[in-house]
Amino acid sequence: MKKRISCLVALSLAGTLLLSACGGGGTASSKAPEASKAPEASAPAESKAPETKIGEGRTLVVGVWGAEQETLVREHVVKPFEEETGAKVELILGGTGDRYSKLYAEVDNPSMDVMYLNMAQTEQATRDGVILPADPEGVKCYNDLYDIAKCGDGYGVALMATGLMYNTELCETPPDSWADLVSDEYAGLVCPYTMPSSQGNATLVMLATALGDPKNIDAALEALAAAKPFPLITEGIPERNQAFLDGEVAIGPQINGYVYSAADEGIPVDFVYPKEGAALTMNCAVIPKNSKNADLAKIFINYHLSQACQEGYAEVLKYGPTNSTVTLPDDLAAKVVYGPDDVAKLVALDNQWVSENEASWTEKWNTMILD
What we know:
Elements lengths: L1 H21 L5 H4 L27 E6 L3 H18 L2 E6 L2 H10 L8 E5 H10 L26 E13 L30 H13 L6 H10 L10 H9 L5 E5 H9 L4 E4 L5 E9 L7 H11 L2 H11 L12 H4 L5 H6 L1 E2 L3 H20 L1
Parallel strand pairs: 1-2, 1-3, 7-8
Antiparallel strand pairs: 3-7, 4-5, 4-6, 4-7
Helix pairs in contact: 3-10, 3-11, 6-7, 7-14
């Protein structure tokens, strides 16, 4: 038994010496062949700090319309934007009038970083230098916009066309000219828009165009006065749709998306681009001049110009994409301004001239058409 214990101790001691040599802990390690070295134990991996995102700790304030537009923006813009940047988004809901006023009143310290405006407001803000210049580097989709959507220093986000809405049950053939609003064929069946309104302004300019001179608004007013009486003059969409449904109206000016939405509800209507063209209506996104989050604002706008957001707007609101690379299924493409052929039919009004003359046109309208 003593011999066995002695042998075990000896073996244990030899093993200890061998391990000491392989582990590099004593002088024997310097003499040992390189091949006999065991791999050194790896130090525990240090946990990496999470990568800091560009927007962490920051809030982007965006002024936009409510209802369906709020829902679409939250789903297709806010959600992916917050995931990418780490920033939070605060939406301020309302109409363009309030946003436009604040753009000027708060020019030195804007309360919003992104504002959605109409085309005329965007053009004026560009002339007045109260918004940041368009940035093709910061807004990656900028170079994919149709030229008509490069609205001064703003970014066009939705295309609409003001053309003619017609009753498919009353019109054997679709109207094809703005002059049809004052033709004998549709006498007593025309529904003009009230003034002032974007559709009303478009009607006067495009009718004047059809009569030979887009600047001769008096000629358009005189032609409309001669075509009285009208069964209805309104800007309310429900009232107009009901008049078409009841067969009281055959044609009238309207934005294409409203026409297709009415058709989806079973109202017998369709939309036509008159041969003189359809007046362009466009929503735009702008960045106030002194925004403290301009870098984030550009990322936000770029998401609005993405395939997902532009397609969502087309599906829900019948707004056409401004991004030329966006693809839509055929059935949806037929209901919005889509593709270079449709875009070529759009007529961009001289909005500055329209704005300068709208009050006088309205005064004449009230006298010549309403009286």
